[in-house]
Amino acid sequence: MTETTTAPAATSGGRVRLPGMALFGLFLAGFIGILTECLPAGLLPQISATLHTGVALTGQIVTVYAAATALAAIPMSRLTANWPRRNVIQLALAMVAITNALTALSTDYTLTMIIRVVAGVGTALIWPNLAGYAASLAPAGKQGRAIAIALAGTPISLALGVPVGTWLSGFGGWQVAFWASAALIVINMLWVHFTLPNRPGQTEHERFTVRQTLAIPGLPTILFTLTAYMVAHNILYTYVTQFLGAAGMGGQTGLVLFAFGVTSVLSVLIVGAQLHRGQHRAVRDQRAGARGVVRGAGAGLRGRGRVGGWPSAARRACSSAARSTPPGRPRTSPSRSRSGSSPRRSRSAA
Fold it and tell me: CA-CA distance, 303 to 94, in Å (whole number)?
């Protein structure tokens, strides 16, 4: 298939901006991945009644979906590594759309479990592609912001998608929520088709092996932490309706899920702002240090040819650099410098 490329649009000031339409397509794909996984959490009592199983057993439709996504992510990524990226996203969305519609039609527990496994395999093609795809669409220096936009679908889905799905079930049963999600996926597929440039896949020499990836310093610790968090999160989130029922809040499931999602979004914004501020602080410190060196060099040039020549110019350069040292860095006291130089002057005078 012919590769389609779209350069980021330029503003009137000559600056390039992010391709918002394309990134929104990736945002929706991430939104749908979480929505499909967590949607049953707010509907377990209704789904269990349809499937004629207990709530605990019905909750396993979330478990098998998540397990299929985790287990299929690496092999499916390797299988489709050389495919054009948009084709992979479209295939994943098609699989999830079909399985969501089949889930709404199913009244058999075993069949529903199989359908959810296939849905998980489809989602396994979404997650490994979002960050890299978003980065490839962004102009230089804005890849981080593009990745943040693409991955923002996760907290937004927790904040809005799952509560809205729970609310929609009141208009005709839990199946309405799954039909609505399938319709949203079809819209997402059309959006992706018309707005997302088709990037080429990876060649064999561009790929990393699992061993090379795990050898990245710190990555195993991060993976372990994320795994522990996700297990703990899913234990509570999957059976949240049961926990709320035991707490006398069974009728407020949608509101609780909405509150959880909103606080998730707020936490992402707060942490992101802190990281952004930290990056700016580091850049500001580096610039301050650079200004000190430049001013010191300038002082050295001005001092050449005057009394004291280069030695006195060097002292002025160091003093200027010290005054420009960023906050929090050690700084030599002027009084200490003067006291340290006095004995030398006294000895030379003697």
Answer: 73
Residue 319's pLDDT band (cuts 50, 70, 90): very low
What pLDDT does residue 244 have? 81
CB 191, CB 22: distance < 8 Å = no
How far, in Å, CA of 75 to CA of 182, rounded? 26
Claim: this prediction has a pTM higher than 0.90: no
Q: Look up residue 134 and give its DSSP letter.
A: H
- The answer to whether the CB of 40 falls within 8 A of the CB of 241 is no
Token digits of residue 208: 């990393």
With helix as H, strand as E and coil as C, how does 264-295 read? HHHHHHHHHHHHHHHHHHHHHHHHHHHHHHHH
Judge whether 158 and 38 are in contact, CB under 8 Å: yes
Q: Pick the closest to residue 196 from 69, 93, 309 (CA basis).
A: 93
Measure the CA–CA gap between 101 and 182, rounded to whole angstroms: 6
- Location of structure tokens 């939104």: 31
What band does 288 get if pLDDT is binned at 50, 70 and 90?
Answer: low
CA distance 157 to 188: 14
Q: What is the DSSP letter of 9?
A: P
Which DSSP state fits 83?
Answer: S
In contact, 178 and 39? CB cutoff 8 Å: yes
Distance in angstroms (rounded) separating the CA atoms of residues 153 and 31: 4
Give the three-state DSSP class for 8: coil
Q: Which of 160, 83, 93 is nearest to 121 (CA)?
A: 93
Burial class for 92, CB neighbours closer than 10 Å (0-12, 13-18, 19+): buried
